[in-house]
Here is the input.
Amino acid sequence: MSVLNGMKLFIIPSWYPTKLYPKSGSFFRERAQILHQSEFKIHVINSTIHPLQDIVKQSKILKNSTEFIDKFGFSTLQIEAINTAPKYENGAFSQQKKNWNNLFQNAIEKYDVPDYVLIYSSIWAGVSLVETLQEMNIPMGVSEHMKEFILPNGFTKKQLDGIQRCYNHASFIAATSKPLLEKMKSQFPDFQTKMTLIPNPVDTNLFKSNNNKPKKAITPFHFIACGLFRHEKEFPNLINAFSQVAKTNDCLLTLVGEGQQENLLRKLVEKLNLEKRVTFSGYLPPIKLVEEMTKSHALVLSSSVETFGMVIVEAMACGLPVVATRCGGPEFTIHEKTGILVEPNNVNSLANGMVKMIIQYSNFDSNEIRNYTIEKFSTIAYANSIKNQFLKIKI
Here is the structure.
């Protein structure tokens, strides 16, 4: 029996599903479910500060911390607040730090002192709690997920100083992909020996391939793209690239997601006369997303930056090959037998990659793609990696 059996683990994500934004950070909730099913006794602790413009929705925000049992069976202690100093970094940080520490003390009163703490993203949970964890001699691991590590000058000096303090106390620092790991090592060379690679997991019991899918594409060729309609996802580039592909190929595109750019994207589809070829499905829960993926031939990811690209491994678990930009994470998850890599922020390169996928589709083996995904990115592999890191800690 593992020495971790029954150990109390506080999972502290820097962002998480809330009443205002129930889809934000859902992948951290899924990580908690995975570890809950392993040998840990877990509690999720989350403090979220919403943008000032959300003050009009404040009636929905919980003014005091609330505790509930997640449908997956673990307890969650959470508080939501409004950022009262959005243009004053020190003020915002002070508010975060106060809220996180008050909530953490509340959690200790309810659940006792944890044996371990797992921080998802040093900004802002890690930098807010590191002094408290150090004073209480509570071992802490950090898993990084922010795209700012990959972006030039992604962090302010205050944020960099905070990450440095966080890493000083961390027992291990995990990156989700090799490109992200290399960026972290170059920015924080003093902590290279603490850094390790722990890829994001995919539930391969949920995301399954369609064994009846033909090896050759049946027209029309069906692309699928998934994500929040935000700037860095570069959906306008995808629509423009698809427009080029559709001129000479019988193909369709389903866009799964929602977000600030939705009206812009719909207008672009209308402008390019693609209404009969492009479908907006809205946000889909995982089981519906699987259904949509199994109807599709290939996934397309058009982002300018991704630390990992969770949707890639979800599609690959369903046996889909992928066309993706070289934007960080995809270079780690995709190779010649699982997909095609293209240049980021380049409509012509993306269009050429999509045409190449249509032509070479029969060369991709869906079972081989799925088996590779199970081997590298399964929930079992993820849970074992986290366990092994905590086993190395000497309390």
User: Anything to note?
Assistant: The two ends are 19 Å apart (CA to CA). Residues 305 and 327 are 5 Å apart (CA to CA).
